[in-house]
Structures are given as structure tokens and as C-alpha cells.
Amino acid sequence: MAHPRLTPRVQRRAALAASGWVALAATALPGGSPARWIPVLAFVVLAPGLALLLPQPLGLRPGARLEALALAAPVSLSVATLVATTLFLTKAFSLTLFVVVLALFVSVVAILPGVPLPAATRGAVERDGARPSRTRTPRFRVPPFRKRGAGGGG
Amino acid sequence: MQRQGPAPVTGSGVPPQPSATDRGAEDRETSERAAGERDTGGQETAGRETAGRRTAGPEAGAARPDGENGRTGGAAARGRLTAALRSPDALNLVPLLVAGALWLWALPGIDFRSMDEFGLLDRFPLTFYAALAVLTCGFVITLRRAGTAPLWPATYCAAMLVALKAPPAILYDTVRYAWASKHDAIISRLLDQGTVHPGTELSGGMSAYDQWPGFFSLDAALVRAFGVDAAASFINWAPVALGLLTVPVLILVYRTFSDDWRLVWTGVWIFQLANWVGQDYLSPQGFSYLLYLTVFAVVVRHFVLPGSAGTLRDRATLDPAAAAVPPPTTTRQRAVAVLFLVPVIATINASHQLTPVMLCASLFALCLTRRYRNLGLLAVSGLIMLIWNLTMGRELFLDTLGTLREKAGDLLGNSRPGFAGDPTGPGPELVGSANILMVLALGGLAAAAVLLRRRLVRSALPLLLAAAAPLPMFAVNDYGGEMIFRVYLFGLPGAAFFAAAALVPAAGAASRAATIARRTATVALPLTLVAMLAGFLPSYYGKEGMHYAPPGETALTRRAFDRAPEGALILAATGAFADSYYRYDHYERWFFTEQEVDENLRMLKDPAGYLSGGIPAGRPAYVILTPTQGEAVIGEGYLPEGGFDRLGKALKASPLFAVVEESRYGLVLRYRPTTTG
């Protein structure tokens, strides 16, 4: 297509990529005000992990959605910790640099496909909005390991 | 792929339309669950759809006579109301609203400023306890529909977390807990200096925080990003925040081993109540524990080796509540997952000393199963730990290695909590008893499940191994008297899961024993949850008197530090008081009762002489004694009852010490050796 459509998935990626720059803008607000700390906290705690996990090519199953939700915060905080630690160790820490590095990370990673954790994509069903109907037969191939006994816990 | 109940995260209770590929599995699942719900819930319905049908009648009826006949309209409205009140959602919502109202009513009545020997226990109003009891009842009710409406138990779990841990965050006007205040001081110093000095020796083992600065760097960055003065402005919310982040990861772990949402949520609930060891404050341990669970969750979900499941995917051989082993992953997939985990493992290593060891122990324990024999991940974790320990953490690492020879093998010594003797006074004694009873209850329930539900143990063996993995740490080190609490903490996820398994019998089995088990559980589950709540409260809030210091006391402490010249020796009975590490790189500290009780009894015979004997010649020295320390030395059993007051009086009376400041917030004395000649 010559003009990529603004599908919900593209919108989500754009929102993730923008969240860091919004957080950066929020740091210009007076210290301690909710308009400042809420977007900054939400960005640091969620955005890097969601950017790494969420844009899955085939959408996510409910189990994988739970996984993305649960892992987003610890992974985000890990990335933020490593960035902050590196900046402090190199005596280069400044608030702007910290947020800019994270925002750049999120912007780049949001463009890339999500980390293919097996449970995230296996037997994936398109999410709401990505397709008009949920009941439509999936177009993607069904991985061979779907053929197994009842149950499953991956 | 994990087999979820329908729409586990949508909260609508309405299953999404299954795709063609999923339909078979969904059908099986629905029939299994329906059977389970019939058995456990008695009048269980198929979920919200049924509720919708129930309410549809009166609604349809109301549409017709509207405007036609007022009496009919009124009857229809009453019918609608009755139907709404009888709906499962109303049944779930009402206890939540009642508990919320009771809790909000209780909050202003929590008299934390006048805490005595029972901490907050006798300062919580009855309505607070009532709110917690109602929440527990509501949670048990939501379990009946946990499979179709998992958001309800989730809401109750979050509500319980907030109800239990938010009061100090909302009420206290100072930093709760001396160690949190210490971490606040570390963050402030990091911001002040802009970097860390891992090679510089600081008294009291404080250089370790420069050698593992990860967590403090994150906090320092957040302090700047929020534009606040110090971490003190958000520090008291850490238990709530860490809890809210930990629960989803815990669910992920439990869902890997069980398809039964009732078991999963009961496990989470028990985990919250059994997690009384107080490691959830703003600390590297609390943070790295979350990351440890994250690594564990990813490993059990994505690191299953091909061909290792055997019969563990055969529904006929599995416990009815168990989940089949996750699908196997290829070497490439596991390699990607290792890369994904590297930042998390690196953060654990940059933040905390003990958690990487526990992580390696758990990964090693998992390698004992054929399912999770991932030597590559174990090697990567070990390598990252070794690299950090040999570079940033070199000093402490080598020191610890040096002490291993004397501490290794001393099982009794390493499992001893602190230096202290027995706690003195009814409050601390109650806390001690509650702690022991909690451990026994949790251990007993978990052991019962391990013995009685062998098939569940087979499929959830990795969880059991991970729970047991920290135990050998007793043979290695005492971790400053903390090892017993840390071993408990790391064993808790597995223990809570199996304890829940003892209380939530498998649904669906038709044998007589199974029926008896289910009937027993109907009574045992709420009773046990209430009993665990009763155990949690003294364990967590029973010593609160030593965790809260009024602003006047912290101001007195800071004044005392500011008055002392650079390099002075600051003496205090214990370090467990707010701001004890204020500007810690400028002073040396001596917490003189943190030693064997016999030595303290000797000290009490002549406190002034004892202390002056320990102060180096020519060193300016100050003594700070605050009421919080008085609570702490009794709570920890350092001094006998009345010992702290005797200590203060003796020092005031001694010519070796001059009173600098005295008020109800504490006593500050200056050492004056010249008067002795």
C-alpha cells in the first residue's frame, strides 16, 4: 500500500513512541505536580517493556496479553535501572539525558516487531480492531505444537 | 500456550468467540469448568450471561407497561432491583463497597501517633478489622466464579493489598521504617555526589550500597524526574506499588502450573498474607524480588525442553487443577528468551547481593528437572553475577568469601534471626508467636498438599524445587542475621501455591473422598484465610512503634547530626530509628546494643564507662537516644524491659556526657572526656 493505514496497532506504536517525549515535556512542569509525575511514572514503569513486548505481528492471545501486562513493568524498570546506573557510573546523569535515552529507546523499539516470546504469538488470534470480525478463521499458519493434548500452561 | 479461562483479562466474564483452532480445547475446558463450578459453587451459574438472562425478563416487562400503569411500572422496577441484587456481580460488588466504606471510615481513626507496645494493632479501629474481614468474605465469594470472571478476585486482591498496606502511606508524615529512611539517605547522597564510589570504604558496611547502586540509581532518577526533594515524598507507597507489580507476575507463574483460577487466586491471596517479613519497602530486596519472579515466570513458561513433558500433557494423568506442561521451545526461541532476560538479570545483579545467588540456586534447582534443564541460562546468570562481583562488588565479595570459612556449615548460627535475645514485653512476644504460627500454618498446609496431591506435585514440581532452593543458603552465610527471613521470602511463592492447593480441592472429581474434601474446604478456606489475616497483622504491624517516628523526632536527630563536626562518632542504642544514616558519609556510627545480650547486660551496669571505653581517644562523639530506639531495643530483644530508660538516666547522670538537647522526642548528649582528667 502506498499509504499505510492508521490501524489501531500503528496508533498504539505511535502512542508508545510519543509517550517518552510527552514525559520529557512533562518534566518541564513544576516539581511534584501530578501533571508531571503521573506521565513520567507511567512512561518509566510501562513504556519500555510494552514497546519490547507488544507489537506482535499476529496479535496476542489472552494468555499472552496477561504476560505482556505482567512483564511490562519489571522489564521497563530493568531498562530504566540500567540506563540510570550507566549514567551515574559515568558521571553523566542528568534528568534530560535519562528521559531522552529512554524515549529514544522506546521510539526505536516500538517500530520494531515485539520480542517473539513463544507464548505471545503461538496460535495467536487477532485482537479487537485489527480485524473486523473475531470469528474469522485466522489467516496465519497454525504452528505444529498446537496439536497436542488438552490443557497447556505456556 | 497457556490455556486461559475465557477472557481472563477482559473482566467481562463473557468468553470471546474462540477461533476455529481453539474451539475444541475451549469446549473441553468449558465442560470441565462447568462441572467444577457445579461441584464447588452449588448454585453456580455459567457466568454473566445467566445474570443477563435473569435481568432480561423484568427489563423486557418494564418496556411494555411503561407509562401505562404506574403500579405495574413500580413492580417492574422492584423486580429489576431484586434481580440486580441477586446477580453474581452484585454479590461480588456489595462486599467490596461495604469494605471500602468501612475502611475509609476507619482511616482517620487510626491513632498512629500514640502507638504503644502493640504497634498499630490496638490503634486500628474495629471498623478497620471489619473491612478486612468483609474483604476476605467477598474474596471467597468471588472464587466461585473465578473461572468466568477472574477480574473480581483480582479486584479483591488489589483491594486487600491497598487495605493492608496503604494506611501508613496515607497517614504517616515521616518515612516509615528505619531501613527505608536509610535508603532515602543513600539516594540523597547519590544525587548529591552525582556518582558512586565503589572503592571507597565507608563505616558500617555502607560502601556496599555504592557497589550495588542499580536500584538507588533508578530511585535517584525518579526523584529528579518527579521534581521532588527526596525519595521520602513517595517512599511510603513502595509496599503498595511493589505489591501491585508483583501480583501479575505471580499469577503468570501460578497459571503455568494450574488451570484452576480458584487455586491461582487463593495462592495469590495467601502469598499476600504470608508475606509479612517486611521486605516490601523501598529496597533493593523488594525490587529485585519482583525481577527474580519475572525471570522465574519467563523460564517456566518459555524454557521447556522438547520431548521432556512425558505424560504431563495427558489430562488423564494430571491433577484436575493442574495445567499441562507448556509447549516446548526450540533452541533459537530459548536463546531469544535468554537475550530478553539479560537486562532483567543484569538489573538484579546491579541492585542486590543476595538475589542473584537465590536466582542461580533456583535455576540450578530447575535444572534438576528434565523439563527445565537449561544450562545455558544458568551459565549466563552465573556469569553476570561473577562479572559484577569481580568488578563493582569486588570488595564485599572478597570479604564475604573470607568469612565463608568460619560461617559455612554453621546451620544453627546462620539461621538465627539477628543478634538479639528473646523479645521482651507482651507486644513483641505476640509478634514472635504470630511469626512462628504463620510459618507453621503455611508450612503445614503446603506439606499437606504435597503429600495429598501427588499428581499436582508432579506437574508443579519446578515450583516446589524453587521453593526449596533457598534452603541450602543456611549452610553458607547468615546475611547479617537476615538469612532466615530471606529464605522464607524466596520460598514463599511455591509455599503459597501448595498451601492454596490444600485449601482448594480439585473440582470435578466424583469420589467420596473428593466430595468430603470439597465440603471441608468450604469451611476451611474462609477460616484459614481469616486466621492468616489474623497472623499477618501482628507480624506486619505489631512492631510499628519502632517504624514510625514523629516529625519532631526526625528533626531532633537531624539537628544532632548537623551539630556534630565532620568525622564525629555518633552513638545510638540501635540503628533502627529514622534518619540514623542521615549524611552517613560524614560520620561514623556505633549502634552499641546491637550485640550479644550478655554483653548488653554488662554494658547496663555502667553505661557511661562502657561507652567511653569504646570511643577512640580524641574523637568527638555524640549520643542520640530517641523513643523509637526505645521501642526497637525492646522489640528486637536487645535490652531487657526498662533497660533503655536506665541507660538514658545513667548517661545523663554521668560526668562523661553532657546533655545537649532533651525533649519528649529524645535525648542528645555530647561526650566530654576531659572532665575525667
UniProtKB/TrEMBL annotation, chain A:
Residues 126-154 are annotated as: Disordered. Signal peptide: none annotated. It comes from Streptomyces flavochromogenes. Keywords: Membrane, Transmembrane, Transmembrane helix. This is DUF1616 domain-containing protein. Residues 133-154 have a biased composition (Basic residues). InterPro entries: TAT_signal. It comes from the Bacteria. The keyword Transmembrane helix applies. The chain crosses the membrane at residues 38-54, 66-89, 95-117.
